[in-house]
Write a structure and sequence with these properties.
Layout (H helix, E strand, L loop, with lengths): L5 H15 L1 H9 L2 H13 L4 H7 L1 H4 L4 H13 L4 H6 L1 H12 L11 H27 L6 H16 L1 H17 L4 H30 L2 H36 L2 H14 L24 E4 L2 E4 H9 L3 E7 L4 E4 L27 H13 L4 E8 L2 E11 L5 E10 L18
Antiparallel strand pairs: 1-2, 3-4, 3-7, 5-6, 6-7
Length: about 425
């Protein structure tokens, strides 16, 4: 009605301002952008149209920072709005705040972890685009073109390498954000990572089918899978570039960014080789080391103790009684990635949502005394991996924490008979 003409729109906005009255003045005067944004998000969740809200709250959201949006969504989730629902409406939120968000461009030196992640986003979008082109070309061929198949295999290898990008975010960047109280947005981003992984797995399977069977039907399915992946990446990268990364830049210190870069280097990169840092990174996670550790059955220097824990071919992680990650060893052939950024992180944040109920069940059973161990085994890259959890208890039986021990038992499973002789190495 009133909104159907320019004059009507002005009258409408004037009425809205009068309706808001002192509340708007309070919000604008105090600079409390977070509370204003929460009001907008609540209206969105109640079904309001983004276009209406964009006009209605234009003045309130003017100058809003990505951190304001992150804090608002964080509080709404804690107030009872499901994280899944927040995630589904992320695009709606961004549509309302887009003009404000895009004012905040990320400007960091080339050695910086955020620069690396943004550049990888650009490269991965190129790879995704190339995948779509190849899939369409293969679909449009009367026969499977061997040259295109070879190019497809090359693109698939790049996609597999891109897993390092997500591992660095989940195991280094997210834990740092959590230390500043930003817990929900990383969880949402991890959920999207798993969606991307599922889409990539579908592409790997179809590419393998196409290579082995020369099936044009697989090429047709590959077009759809490639399109899905591209859409997921565009949406996900936009959220990270415009909300998550600026938030991280506002929170982390220069020292923490140097430590982050060091851990990024340890995980490895995809798509391109970043410029090295000039400043040495201080290891902010390592305590001062001096003297010896006295134990009931002997004493060890810290150097000896650490070497002993790192020597066996097993991954060890200790989570204390409060579910906080306190320690992991650094075995030579680590099976699952661990970074120093996880120290101090709640163990629940170290697992994707789909397996969180299992983690919590194990911990509950350990704490109640119902169980003292839990065993699992999985196939990973053609290897049999044995994963064991143990309740760690004090002398009086009190629960101290949980010890996770992971071992590659592929060769052990093949053992037969006996071996009593020490063989010299060839």
């Amino acid at each position: 009605m009133l909104g159907s003409s320019e004059q009507g729109s002005k009258v409408y906005n004037s009425v809205i301002r009068k309706m808001l009255g002192d509340k708007m003045t309070e919000l604008l005067g105090s600079g409390n952008k977070k509370e204003a944004i929460k009001r907008i998000l609540k209206k969105l969740h109640e079904g309001a149209k983004p276009e209406e809200l964009k006009e209605e709250f234009k003045e309130i959201v003017k100058g809003a920072k990505p951190l304001d949006i992150v804090k608002a969504e964080e509080e709404l989730i804690k107030e009872g709005i499901p994280a899944e629902e927040v995630r589904k409406l992320c695009e709606v939120h961004l549509a309302v705040f887009k003009d404000s968000i895009e004012e905040h461009e990320v400007s960091v030196p080339e050695w910086h972890p955020i620069y690396i992640l943004v550049q990888e986003h650009k490269e991965m979008l190129k790879i995704s685009g190339r995948l779509e082109e190849l899939a369409r070309s293969l679909k449009g061929s009367s026969l499977v073109n061997e040259k295109l198949v070879e190019q497809l295999k090359h693109v698939v290898e790049h996609l597999k390498e891109s897993e390092k990008h997500y591992l660095r975010e989940e195991n280094v960047l997210f834990p740092y954000l959590e230390k500043y109280g930003v817990t929900e947005p990383p969880k949402i981003m991890w959920m999207e990572h798993d969606e991307i992984r599922a889409a990539k797995k579908r592409i790997y399977d179809l590419a393998q089918k196409l290579v082995e069977s020369k099936s044009l039907e697989a090429a047709s399915e590959l077009v759809e899978a490639a399109n899905l992946l591209s859409n997921l990446l565009v949406s996900h990268f936009y959220k990270e570039n415009n909300v998550l990364f600026p938030t991280a830049l506002e929170l982390l210190s220069e020292e923490e960014w140097l430590a982050t870069r060091k851990e990024f280097d340890e995980v490895g990169y995809c798509c391109f080789t970043p410029r090295p840092t000039e400043a040495p990174a201080k290891d902010i996670s390592k305590a001062e080391r001096s003297g010896e550790v006295s134990l009931e059955t002997g004493s060890l220097s810290l150097q000896e103790l650490e070497a002993i824990l790192n020597t066996p071919p097993v991954d060890i992680t200790f989570v204390d009684k409060d579910d906080t990650v306190r320690y992991f060893n650094q075995s030579r052939d680590r099976i699952f990635l661990r970074t120093k950024a996880v120290i101090g992180r709640k163990v629940q944040n170290c697992h994707p949502k789909k397996s969180l109920h299992i983690v919590n069940k194990i911990l509950e059973d350990f704490k109640s005394g119902k169980r003292d161990s839990a065993d699992f085994w999985i196939n990973k890259g053609g290897r049999l991996i044995y994963i064991r959890y143990f309740a760690v208890r004090g002398k009086n039986g009190e629960y101290l924490g949980c010890l996770e021990v992971t071992q590659d038992v592929t060769e052990i499973k093949k053992l037969e008979g006996e071996k009593r002789i020490y063989d010299e190495a060839p």
